[in-house]
Amino acid sequence: MATAMDTVLDMRDAIAEKEEGEAAAAKVRKVDRDQRQTVGVPFVDEPRMTCREVNVYYGEKHAIHDVSIDVGKNEVLAMIGPSGCGKSTFLRCLNRMNDTVATCRVTGQILLDSLDIYDKKVDVVPLRAQVGMVFQKPNPFPKSIFENVAYGPKIHGLVSNKTELTDIVEDSLKKAGLWDEVSDRLEQPGTGLSGGQQQRLCIARAIAVRPEVILMDEPCSALDPIATATVEDLITELKTQYTIVIVTHNMQQAARVSQRTAYFHLGDLVEVGPTDRIFTNPRHQLTEDYITGRFG
Amino acid sequence: MSATQQSTMDRVHKGLAARYRKEKRFRLFGLSAIIMSLAFLVLLLGSIGAKGYTAFLQTEILLDIHLDAETLDVENLATANYGSLVKRAMLDNFPQVKGRRDKRELSKLVSTGASFQLQKLVMSQPELIGTVLSLWVPADDEVDMFVKGHISRELPESSRRINDKEIEWIDQLQAAGRIKKSFNATFFEAGDSREPELAGIRGATMGSFYTLLVTLLLSFPIGVAAAVYLEEFAPQNRLTDLIEVNINNLAAIPSIVFGLLGLAVFLNFMSLARSSSLVGGLVLTLMTLPTIIIAARASLKSVPPSIREAALGVGASKMQTISHHILPLALPGMLTGAIIGMARALGETAPLLMIGMVAFIVDVPSGFSDPATVLPVQIYLWADSPERAFVERTSAAIMVLLFLLLTMNATAVILRNKFERRW
After folding, report:
1. What digits encode the pLDDT tens for the residues A155-212?
2. Per-residue CA distances from B238 to A247, B113, B175, B226, B251 (Å)
3. Which of 2.160.10.10, 3.40.720.10, 3.40.50.300, 1.10.10.410 is the CATH number of A2-142+211-291?
4. With a cut of 50, which residues of chain B have pLDDT below it?
5. Rounded distance, CA A165 to CA A98, Å?
6. Domains along chain B?
7. A206 and B CB contact within 8 Å
8. What pLDDT digit, counting tens, does each position of A144-153 carry?
9. Residues of A numbered 153-192 whose beta carbons fall under 8 angstroms of chain B's beta carbons: which are they?
């Protein structure tokens, strides 16, 4: 745990250092298409995921333009932006959930550690075990709470006996902060829980397969403020063990839970930077307009 | 400001009455439609019930049959002349009847089934030989009709199928307490027969059972597999579009065309057994498949995409997503579709006529390749028969068919609720 925290702190230092030399970094990144240039610090040392010039097309529609960004180890990266700006689309590229959309085409490079996840040889099944996902609407399976959490470990063959499975389920539910509320009714349907509990159940389900990265697509948009606070606390907890990418419409939430924030606008990655800097001192006009509430 | 608000409310109030009138009118239309259809249903069921309930009873005549050892040779019980025994027993009731013609008419009051009944009894209990046996035997269908009141005494003799002399004999038998009506077990135990009093629906029911079994066993798995493939795996291109259009068209094709197809392919080309439930089931499978595929696809589509995403999100493969999550959720809808298809298959006549299931088949089928007929075809055959007694049997067969349909639909509802209630 301590080492994980250290890593985070190191990373923050690294980011701070980078910020100092930002002018230089910006020059290096200088590309021809000025208006599409990303402002800020999109790259980190020791990234967990590396995205380079990612383009996404839905049929003829060009949804994401040349997005290059890193996701650091054990950080929470928040992606904000007005509706339809492509942040969810980009998020879903990170575990190839976009494969389910027939018309969707992704170009560019996305690396998980050093594995190119869009390589033809890559199997999406283990990939999605490594990059878990939590969706906007809580979507527990219409099965028992236990079954919901146990499903992932079961299909991936992570356990050899019932005791191990029970342990994983208990462990995951504890990490998701749900254990105390459901430990006496694991056989009851997951769909019978409240919205916030359901979402934490989905998080437990995602972490039960021990992923490296967890993608969260507006995980709190269907929850009330109290449930939202619980989930946010949970995200902060999980950060020590997992890398988290979260899409949110709620800027306060981004400010509360994330270390870095990326601002998307109409398919462009406009600005990336340390969260406190983005919200206090945005560099790009669009970012400033958005976070000050001039549009969005 | 308040003036304009006032006028807005005025306008709203003015239109309000018309809105409510519209609603009331619509409700009235709906209600009258339901009442009308219910009335027709009651009329239909009522007329079937009123005509058919008497078929569940059969008139029987008590005979004292002398099983003399001369006629009944213990060595040759199968070929003995049981008919003459029955005839003699009948004549014993009416010692006054003389003359060949009258005697023959008298013996005709008893069904030809009586001698078979006697034969069965004697062969199973040979020790009865030499005794006088009191036995209730089925009456002839005309006697049955008369006793049940379907043939009126008031009619002139020439326009009824039972003459005054016979009526007199029946009256005498009734006075002697030798006529009773009892439960018509034959109707449920026998196959078809030319004699209404010996005809039953067991053959047709078993035929329907085997035919539907073949249909269900083939069409449900094939239909579900086709639906899953088309919905989940097939690429979206012109070919799949074409297939989809054709499946929808197939669902609307007149069923007799499927019968012709079955005749050409299963009988002429593949030389399968004519009139068999196997071929009937195959033809009905062809007919039911589109219905099942369409229903199954609709229920697959109605599974919320969030469940699909959830499964894919934890790394389930496509097949695991489908078999663990999509199929269980789609199953109730698929079952409903299958049962609707099966109910339609149960009531189908036309395609089965083409493959020879309309033949007169007396034996109860005991397998898939035995010649068989099905309930609706049996109804069709009986409805076509001239004997008055087949009228009530037709109605009774319809009642049995409706009962089976009702049972199937109830099963569908129960199954659906069971699967849906899980969570």
Report:
1. 988 888 899 999 999 999 988 888 989 989 999 998 889 888 999 999 999 999 989 8
2. 37, 64, 80, 17, 20
3. 3.40.50.300
4. 423
5. 30
6. 59-182 (no CATH), 202-420 (1.10.3720.10)
7. yes
8. 999 999 999 9
9. 155-156, 189, 191-192
